[in-house]
Request: fold
Amino acid sequence: MRTATQSKWALFLALLMISLIAACSSGSGSVKADTAGGSSGTEWYKKIAEDTLLDTAYKNIIFSKFETTQEIEQAYPGTISYCRDSAITRLKEKNIFNTVTMEAPGATYDGPTLLVKVKVTHLRIVSSAARVWGGVFAGSSGMETTLTLIDAGTNTTVRVKDVGTYNNPYGAMYSGSDHSLPMDMGRILADYLVAVIPQ
Reply:
């Protein structure tokens, strides 16, 4: 007959195995999606590839200041800037646009210019303490944005797109993707622009 200690160890090992199997089967950290439901990374990139191209091959990408709600700004001060900087860095690394920068009063640019406005409509980042103590039960970290693309030459809105990302709570226990979420979101926004702007 098993002792109480042996039973506890058996239960612990069983739960550990279930967690490891679930983590492996669910893939790594971030799950990319353009809906709040969350889809796999492969599905996300397939979706943006299927989005219709814009009509103009823009050479300059200009970002307005990222907007968000007062509640999000108070809960996560300064976090939105990480998303913005990540998007700009990613686009510069692609080296396919003449200019990628923040909007500046009175600035002019040679060639077709796309003004990009981003509003963060939802943000939840699971804290380190909550992840350590709650594990998968602390839930997913997630970020949702509304992307508005404006032709700077005609001041015409050419597309409005909801773009979001939710991480996998199993993977987040091992990858630390909760706190990389804003940077991941910036790269997703950049990749979307690359996907829909004709080259």
In short: Residues 4-25 form the longest helix (22 residues).
